[in-house]
Amino acid sequence: MKKTSTRLADGRELIYYDSRDDAVRDAVDRRPLDPTVTTSEVRRDVLLGDSVAIASHRQGRIYHPPANECPLCPSEGDRLSEIPDSSYDVVVFENRFPSLAGDSGRCEVVCFTSDHDSSFADLTEEQAGLVLEAWTDRTAELSHLPAVEQVFCFENRGAEIGVTLGHPHGQIYAYPFTTPRTALMLRSLAAHKEATGGENLFDEVVARELADGSRVVLSSDHWVAFVPYAAHWPYEVHLYPRRRVPDLLGLDEGARTEFPKVYLELLRRFDRIFGEGEPATPYISAWHQAPFGALEEFEGVNRDDFALHLELFTIRRTSGKLKFLAGSESGMSVFINDIQPESAAQRLREVASS
Q1: Which of 130, 202, 239, 306 is the most exposed place for a label (fewest CB within 10 A)?
Q2: Which ranges constitute the DSSP H helices of the chain?
Q3: Strands (DSSP E) along the chain, which ranges?
Q4: What is this structure's pTM?
Q5: Active site positions, annotated
Q6: For the segment 29-38, what is each residue's pLDDT rounded down to a tens digit?
């Protein structure tokens, strides 16, 4: 992998990740952009104990532009985009309309391919491996920023999810705090460790799923994917490396090499869940990594106790119908799942690639 860092016209950082070592990236951003101005701030909710990012400047962000005006396609002639070069493998840049900025963290966009009409599932294993390298590199770099406590790599796919740009891309949020979801896992981890005299809850969850087998979707030498026992979403898969590591930086060579094949298979199965002729399945794909900040509030737990894993789920519950987060989910955070996890796992096994 070759990494080339440059600056856009308004001062934001852009990084090319190339599979070829001889790639030259010297194109200049020719757009007449003013310096980026953001109003992002993080406010603490004292009743719930969580934080909310206030980012009113995002109201003016680009919304469903036509394909010939896509800001994530390479620049071509007089059609100038966020990517100055005429082609790219993988590119990462600071979001022009970030939810988090400055002392409140950082937001980046990850473009998986220059092909506007493609998707992550269409990538080759080499291309998917390069995306993994980019995620890992950005996790390492962002973890060193003074304001950052946790790095979150994710992809929103599909208009139903709320995606405003059709080009295949994901995002990276670098939070100035440990997120509520991660804090819940760390509290459960700490309580279980104390109750059992040191046993790791993540290890037990994976071991139980492998022993039961009814919810396992696929397994390989280095990875295991399963629908969790208490799945929140209609079709939800958790992907774990067999060797517990706290973050993407901890993956060994075997896991890195095998990841593209396993992950691409999962994504392709998701697109086959609802049968032939159905539109592409909307999904959220989310990497859960250990925070880089102090963990004193989670007594007895350190970073190495956390288990890196990827959560992949769709909000579509059946053909033409979505799972909405209504009263119980939105008002009380109590999920109600219409699909039995064992049935979801069975369906995901049925649609395996031949």
Answers
A1: 202
A2: 125-143, 180-196, 201-212, 253-270, 332, 341-350
A3: 2-7, 13-18, 41-45, 50-54, 90-94, 106-111, 150-157, 169-175, 216-219, 223-226, 235-241, 283-288, 309-314, 316-318, 321-322
A4: 0.96
A5: 169
A6: 999 998 877 8
